[in-house]
Every structure is written in structure tokens, then in C-alpha cells.
Amino acid sequence: MRIISFTVILTILVIGFSWSSLKYLQTSSDEILRQLEAIEHQVHGEQWQEAQQSLAGIIAYWNEINKKWKFLIDHREIDEIEMTVARLQSAFQTREQNNALTELSVLRFYLRHIPAKESLLLRNIF
Questions:
Q1: Among candidates 111, 118, 115, which has minimal Cα distance to 36?
Q2: Is pTM, for the whole model, over 0.70?
Q3: Whether 103 contacts 87, CB under 8 Å
């Protein structure tokens, strides 16, 4: 009976941790995605100074959540996000609209993909 109780409690803890981790990933990625929409409008309007300031805000937020994300997801994906942000900064500095929009799309893909990939679904387990 103890083994069954222990197994049930452990299963509940694992599912609870998975759910809270996924919720955190989803909430924090949604916040960045919301800010990326504003940056995209700024890039379309060629408001480079404002776009750089908005990106600086995203980077500051990313530096806060990055530590927790490293605990929850594969480090390679974090590296991909950081490289994309670096390329985005470069595109802003050189005022290359096409490159900036491309990097924004790539960053948006990563931020949508990671919470979906980390969700606890049967297809992700098997």
C-alpha cells in the first residue's frame, strides 16, 4: 500500500511541476511575443531608435527569465534564441529592414515552438 501511495504522490508532483513549468514558459514567451509585435510595427515604420529601445527591454526581460528557462529546457534552444537576438540587434544597427523582419519571424517561431514542444502530451512522450 505504501508503494502505491508513494507512486501516486510522486506522479502528482511530477505532473504538477510539469504543468507549472509549462505555464511559466507560456506566460514568459507570450510576454516577449507581445513586445515583438510592437517592434515589428516599429521596423515597418522604420523607427529604428524606438525598435532598439524596445529590443533593449526584451533583452532585460530575457536576462531575468533566462536563468529559469535554462533549468527547464534544452540549452541549445536558448542559444538559438540568443543568437537570433544578436542578429536582430545587428540588423537594427545597420537598419536592414528585411533582415530585421526575418530575424523577428525566427525569434517568434522559437518562442512559440518551445512551450508547445515542452507540453506534456502523449506525442511528446512516445
A1: 111
A2: yes
A3: yes
